[in-house]
Fold this protein.
Amino acid sequence: MIADLTRAERTWAMIIVGGLTVIGLAMAVGGRNDLLGVHGWMVMIVGLAGFAMMIRQFDAPEPDPERLQHYYDAPTRAGIILTLIWAVIGMFVGLWVATLLAFPDLTFDAAWASFGRLRPVHTSGVIFGFGGNALIATSYHVLQRTTRARLPDQISPWFVLLGYNLFCVIAASGYMMGLTQSKEYAEPEWYADIWLTIVWVVYFSIYIRTLMRRKEPHIYVANWYYMAFILVVAMLHIINNLAVPISLGSAKSYSLFSGVQDAMTQWWYGHNAVAFFLTSGFLGMMYYYLPKRAGRPIFSYRLSIISFWGITFMYMWAGSHHLHYTALPQWVQTLGMAFSVVLLVPSWASAGNALMTLNGAWHKVRDDAVLRFMALAVIFYGLTTLEGSFMAIQAVNSLSHYTDWTIGHVHAGALGWVAMIVFGSLYALVPTMWKRPKLYSAKLVEVHFWLALSGTLIYVFAMWNSGVTQGLMWRTYSESGALTYSFIDSLVAMHPYYIARAIGGLLFLLGAIVASYNIGMTIRSPIAETSDDAGQDLPAQPALQAGE
Amino acid sequence: MALSERDKVSGHMTTGHEWNGIKELNTPVPRVVYIFLISATIFSVTWTILMPSWPGINDYFRGLLGADQQAEVRQSVAEGVAERSSWTDAIVDEDFTTIRADPSLMQTVRETGKMLFAENCAACHGAEGLGNPGFPNIIQAPTMWGDDPATIMETIRVGINSAHDETRYGQMLAFGRDQMLPLSDVDRVVTYVQTLSDPAIATADNAEDIGEGATIFADNCAACHGETGTGMQETGAPNLTDQYWIYGGDRSSIRHTVYYGRQGLMPTWEGRLTPAYIKLLALYVADLRTAAK
């Protein structure tokens, strides 16, 4: 990584890690009586480690200027490995919290191991750690291939990737120490949020600067989606995290919003995190790797356009469906429901566009587990969006809300759609990235496919059953007009489903481990004979001059 | 720039754009998408016309159906109360003996009481009321404060060591920690207390300790627990001669009790449960106690 940088760039990199060290020191000193100090030490150690690495390699020979004629794939390779590491960590913690729900005593009486602290480690671990790294890694790849331009500089892609992972580590370690803003999916405290904002702005600039230098006349759909993802997540993140720290030496902050405004802001954020992080970003991934793997043209350019704008516009207004029958004024609920129903149209249009793209390649779906991962992901995307719009209808929501149905819905999307499209894309990407002729084992991909599918189905069916049972038990009245079941009765009824859910999660985790092994062995296998720029890719346009 | 070409599988033309080998067809948007879009929009717009929806500056559009969530909640709560008043009135008005003699009313007490108990009391007293460490068995054990329904109702209403103005106070003093007894005396009285429920503890070796323990007990404990250790309702001190323990009957638990004292908290339910429900729970507990005898 460092050997690829010029002297001047190495100096810049040293300034950055040096700055990070200083910030860490300031946090450690300012927050010495607070948990902020612990994070300060962590940041400082990371900064120092980076600094040490820079010094060790500072005098390495200047890199070959020829490299600027090729795509810049080292950050993508690192991102793929980080994706897999987070996949295993995040899913393992998921299995752990699932087991805790079935057997609540398994906390060893330790605060850090309590459900409330581990749950966000799971959600952030899989969404941000696994999903986010996958998005960053693939977006670098897709961006360069579809613009035929190399990433704009050598440092910023690393800054984004590593800076983002630093954020993830700060977030997860903070949860275990009890640091949280108590906003779902936006738990990290103010300093982590500021850091992520900086990283994100740089990420966006990479995109813009590369697109500005593109050698293709048009911007490919995948890039629209990746850009919507980056841009909207920036907006959501900044607004929902507006908060005032109680002091610069403290990790604790208070949100700018309160009461129902706070709830609405939070779910505007939360819902659009699902929309733009977990949907748009991964649609971008799908739009590149699926047609590429299937060897088929996109079914309809026009459909791509209307579904892109449909999704982007419609999602924004749907967040209030998370707050049906609460203190939120009814008119906001009605609008949330109305937009959610129409939202199904562009969602299905996207899914349909992807499935129709497979026309003429269905035999490949049958034979190639990699493509099958992607096809199945699209099917789950369609099912989950249908379910989502359905659950946004108030009458349905009055049964489903606060039950495990919601958890089932989320995991149909997270396991069935997000994780499957990631694994399919990674399998397609890994051999080209490491210039290997093929994956280490096609059979293991097949094994992973069936583990993932059965794990998802067991999980989702368990949660549907448990959710509907719960919802019905909570609203059953006896003849005398009193509730028939107590809350504890409903918990007892959930127990078998919670065990089933943990089994489903275990299968899915095993799949992720198989994938990591397979990809690891691919990387260790001998390099392909043909060493032209990443196999069948069109070459990067060589017209890349400094200062361009 | 590449030229449009015809795709063999679909028969449609491509757009002529190409990105690293990916092409796009210029397929028109299928009619079904428009139909779907229009019907979903019609549904949603109609819904917003019927229901409270579009905001203005100071107000919002109320919707043609005049629906109001808040009013609906208030109304259905009122309906529920009215529906239940067929039996809650009887619970409030009738005296305990009459209610307990009325099989159909007692049927409602058992049914509703089970749910109320599970929802409010089981977390501490256990699903069957048989107690948990630190929380008494209120079904089988002799009561500290009295077990006629009226007394139980009062206990539920004001709580024990609770925040209620009229709360019952039950304090087991910290004889060791507060140095009211020397450690050796604590040990002796503990041995004595053990013999109250388990005579087998007494052996030739500890006869002397037990004898002194009995004296210590008479001097320090009897005022609350009674001469024979069978408890007193005036002080809420429990019976020490039976097999039921709140905090455990093994030596180390008893020693802990005598050394550090105890002050269990039974919350007050006045204001949290309606008088009818408090009375119903008292009936429910009393009923279970009768059944357990």
Chain A has 16 helices and two strands.
